[in-house]
Structures are given as C-alpha cells and as structure tokens.
Input
Amino acid sequence: MMHIELSRTVASLATEVPGAAELFRRHGINFCCGGEITIEAAAREASLDPGELVRELETLVCSALRDAPDNTLDLIAHLLTRYHTIHRSELEWLIPLAQKVERVHGGHAEAPIGLTTLLQRIQDDLEEHMRKEELVLFPMMKPGNVIALDYPIAQMRREHAVETQYLANLEHLTNGFAPPIGACNSWNALYVGLKKFAQDLVQHMHLENEVLFPRYTT
Output
C-alpha cells in the first residue's frame, strides 16, 4: 500500500490520492495556490493532528484499491472500460459545454476563461497516452511475458505527471469546481461533470501507478 509521508506536499497528494482533494476541501486545506506546503504544516494550520490526517489519506488509498480486480488481465479490462472509455465519452460533451459557458458568460468575473483550451489539451494528451497503453503497453502485459517494461512504464509515469499538472490547473481555473452563486444550469452541469472527470482521472492514474505498473518493473 502507498505509504504517505508527512513531508509530502498537499498539492501532490490532491492529484495522486483518490478522494484527497475532497478531504482537503472538507478540512479547509488549500491545495491549489497554497498547496506546496507539507501535509504536516497544512494539518497544523488547519488545527488538525498531522498523524490523523495521514491516516485519513491512507484510508482513502485502501478504499481506492478495494474495488480493483486482483487479476492483472481483469484489472486491465477494468481500466479500459471504467476509465479509458468513460474519459473519452465525457470529454466529448464537456468540451462543447465549456465552450458554451465561456461564450455566454465570458464577461462574468468568475468565468473560466481558457477552460476550453485546457480541456482540449487534456483530451489530446490523454488520447495519445491511452492509445499507447491500449496498442503497446497493455498487450505486453500478458501472462508469461518476460519482456522488461521499465522503460515504457517510466514514460507512462512521466505522462501521468503531466496530467496531474493539468488537474491542478483545472482545479484552479474552476475555483475548486464551485460555480458562482446564481450560475445557470449549463455552468452548474459543467462543473459537476468536470469534478467527476477529475476524480476519475486521479483514480485511474493511481491504479496504474500503485497497482498495475509495479507488477512489471524491477
């Protein structure tokens, strides 16, 4: 299981541990603009016991792994159907909706200007990343395959790191997926959809980084 050190930053954990972002929101911990502080420092600022905050985070890690199939081929199938397919489907409607909100509400002080461009960048990079996994990496993960996968997995991890930065940008641009008071139905629907997409992507990368990839690295 992933062990969480008190020296880890709030920002890194918010995009690596499924559910951590919501946990930080609940405790009033700023993991966006002020997220480069350590878990220990953030806990003390929020009048929390650092050890208890770490235990809450590690409980989230355990929960994230609970629903993942143990068998490698089943896990890969789960990643493909639960995440790859759904990411593609959701981005197909989130991007036009973001365009609409930017166009209609561009003059609003809290309008997410640049959101469409960010989502298109996420879509392009994520599509390329997932196709590499589907066409190259996952087929190499068959039972009995003894080919070393350290290099392609290292590349996938680097691409995950890029996605985590996109997620941080998404969090910042949408004010933590919180639409302004009086926002229209489209704006509300957009942020609900984006929050779900972001949570899924964190879970997706966590399962690969912490469960699948270690099975094929030395």
In short: The first helix runs from residue 10 to 14. The helical segments are 10-14, 20-27, 39-45, 50-66, 72-105, 115-140, 150-173, 185-212. The chain has eight helices and no strands. The chain has a mean pLDDT of 91.
